[in-house]
Structures are given as structure tokens and as C-alpha cells.
Amino acid sequence: MVSSSNEGSGRATLELSVALSDNPRTRPVIDGRVPFEGIRLVPTTVHPSEMFWRQLRFGDFDVSEMSLSTLTILTSKGNRDWVGLPIYTMRKFFHNEIVVRKDSGIDTPAQLKGARVGVPEYQQTAAIWTRGVLQHEFGVLPRDMTWWMERNDDKSHGKSSGFKAPEGVSITPVPLDTNLGDMLLKNEIDAIVHYIANNNLVDRSRIDVTADPQVKFLFPDREAESARYFKKTGIFPINHCMVIKRSVYEKHPWIALNLYSGFLAAMDQVRKDSLAWMAPYYEMGLVDRAVRGVVTKSPMPYGVKAARPVLETITQYVHEQGLCERRVALEEIFAPQTLDL
Question: Which whole-number Å values give the CA distances from 177 to 101, 150, 152, 174, 207, in the listed order?
């Protein structure tokens, strides 16, 4: 939905549809509290699983969040439908979300070898980060586990990027009459990577498995593990970036920097509104929860330069895990105007 309006200012304003997940960093944009020079955004709030599926299958929005792994895979195959913006709406330490059955005998990452592991989608960024950490931190390779994938071809993001199981990796589709949560509680799998039980059109699980007495987190002190990993690697994993439809970008290339500036303003607004933006510091163990108003620099900087080590790590993992045939350069992913940011 691209259209122009005058809005009584004497200057044309470009109207763009935008899809966003609801989180502290995007809320000022969703609420319309942040102006975008020359742009009026018409937001839709939608769960990322559904958002990416809708974008990849139907191209519903001019601008949206996008799975960084899927964008990398598509780019590696010559697909140029999307132009990336170095705006990161989701960052998290995903490997500390692994849940296991208490009776599985799995108490350490190394004991995942030989385990039956569920995953919503094998190529999703959260799963790639988790497998990368398991491999490089704990010596557990993807092929050391057998995988069960919940999303079927009709609803998977991989359907749009030609996903095939990497060589040496066993992936079994979860039957349509069940889901990962039910399978874990019935002892049909031992663990789940990045469990999603949110109500959306793509994921089928709905049970809160973390509330069940049969289930535990693999890392009992998740904040301590996040702090250990960050202190050692300096990596705060990026999951989503923003994208523009290339057809829109090529007609209006100026919108790349205008959107970037608007999202920076949104981050500033979050800092002014609340302490929600400091949550990652707590998770990384860098700031005690009793400390208030001390931290002034965000641990989640936008831009290519500040995030280059993290971005290059995920593109390495996508290639290393057999999801694309070549290593993709960041210059291929992001709008040229943003590469020096």
C-alpha cells in the first residue's frame, strides 16, 4: 500500500504499510508518537511468525520486520525482493531458552547429543543462533541431534526459500494432529529449541510447557548463562531486522535513511518513557537490578558498523549449518545508504 498525500502541509507525504511485533522498541512507532520525515506509516501489529509468512508468501506490507536468517538465505539465492535496514527489533540470548524433560537425563548441553529435539522451524534465526552456540561453546553439532519441525510446508518460511534438510541432519515433520508442546509432555521428544506458544496463524503449540512439573530449562540460571556468553564473546544475538520491498525502495530510495532516523527516535523515546530498554543489561548481568538511571548507552545499537561482529556471526552460522551455499556479505543485505551507519 504505497500512496501519497498532502496532509495540508504543502508537502507530499508517502504513505507506507508497516508490520511490527509489539515490543518496547517498536511501541512508539505503533502508537504514532514518533514522526517520520516525509512518511506516514500505517502499522499492523502481528506476531513475527505470521508476519514473515505473510510477507514471504503474499508481500502484504511495504515495510516490516524480517527474519535475518531468511533474508540471508534468500539473498544467497539471488532473491532481491527485500532491502534490509540495520534496525534490530528483536535481540535475545536464545540458547538459554532450551527446555528439556526432567526425566530425559539431559542436564548439560553436551548431553543433547543423541536427543530428540523439537524446533518450530529449522531455518529460523533463533534456532540458528542456538545451534551455533551449542556447536561453538559446547561442541554439540546439529547432526548430533534428531530434529522434529512443527511448521508444515504451507506455513513454513522455508517454503519460500527452497528449504531442504542440510546434509547429515535428520528432520522429521511434526504430524498435523499434534504439536511440539504436546510431544514434549508425552515424552515423544526430549527437548525444544525456541518454543513458541503464542496465538498466531503459523505455530500450532499453545501449552505453557515451562509451567509443567515435567519440564525444566536446560540452563537453570538463565541470566548467569547470558552474562557468561556475552562476557566471553561480546555477542548479543540479533534476530530481526527491518526490510523494505525493493519495488518500493527503488522508487523512493530516500525512505531508507528516513525510516532509520525514525526508528532511532523511537529508541530514544523508549529511554525517556521507561526503564524497559535496560532489560538486556539485566539479562547480561551488566547492571544490578537495583541500579536505576546509571546506564546511558544502549546495548542494542542500530547500524551496520556497531553490529558488524554480530551480523557476521549469524551469516557465518547460516552458511556453516548448510542453509546456504555461500557466505553472504552484509553489503548484499542492507541498503547502500546505511552501510556506514
Answer: 21, 11, 12, 8, 15
- Cα 340–chain centre separation: 23
Helix (H, G, I), strand (E, B) or coil at 153: coil
Task: Give the torsion through C-alpha atoms of 159, 160, 166, 171, to 10 deg.
Answer: -20
Three-state SS at 278: helix
Positive/negative CA dihedral, 29, 32, 38, 39: positive
Q: Which residues make beta-bridge pairs with 244? A: 63, 83
CATH topology classification for 2-91+237-338: D-Maltodextrin-Binding Protein; domain 2 (3.40.190)
Same fold, 2-91+237-338 and 94-233: yes
Distance from C-alpha of 92 to C-alpha of 296, rounded to nearest angstrom: 20
Question: Are the C-beta atoms of 36 and 259 separated by less than 8 Å?
Answer: yes
Prediction pTM value:
0.92
The CATH number of 94-233 is 3.40.190.10
CA 321/CA 166 separation, integer angstroms:
7
Condensed to tens digits (0 to 9), the pLDDT of residues 273-332 reads: 655 556 666 566 655 554 444 444 555 689 999 999 999 999 999 999 999 999 999 999
Q: Which set of grid coordinates corresponds to residue 57?
A: 508468501
Angle at 156 between CA 155 and CA 160, to 5 degrees: 105
Q: Report yes or no: 112 and 134 within 8 Å, Cβ to Cβ.
A: yes
Domain borders along the chain are 2-91+237-338, 94-233
